[in-house]
Write a structure and sequence with these properties.
The protein has a two-stranded antiparallel ribbon with strand order 1-2. A hairpin with a 4-residue loop joins strand 1 and strand 2. The chain has a domain of 55 residues. Helix 2 runs antiparallel to helix 3. It is mainly alpha-helical and 87 residues long. 52% of the residues lie in helices and 7% in strands.
Length: 87
């Protein structure tokens, strides 16, 4: 299950979050990637994120699932989502 304590969440770098500026949707591992894929549609329907943000979250989560690497590590390596990333 993808649960973080407040202390764990605060200790994460901004780059660990799909939406860095909002520190929303942390994606450090498979569990958090799957949680992001389940939660993003709910956030979209609730009006908390835009369709473009949902696509971006999906791309980040799919890349973490594909590579097995945390999002912060992927970003440090220069990875950026493309239109094909969420496919």
């Amino acid at each position: 299950m993808a649960i973080l304590t407040e202390a764990e969440r605060m200790a994460l770098p901004n780059s660990a979050f799909a939406l860095e500026a909002r520190r929303a949707f942390p994606i450090m591992d498979k569990d958090h990637a799957e949680a992001a894929l389940m939660d993003a549609p709910l956030s979209l329907r609730a009006g908390h994120i835009t369709p473009a943000q949902k696509e971006y979250i999906d791309a980040c989560a799919h890349e973490v699932l594909r590579t097995g690497k945390p999002l912060a590590e992927l970003r440090a390596e220069g990875w950026k989502p493309t239109q094909d990333s969420a496919a």
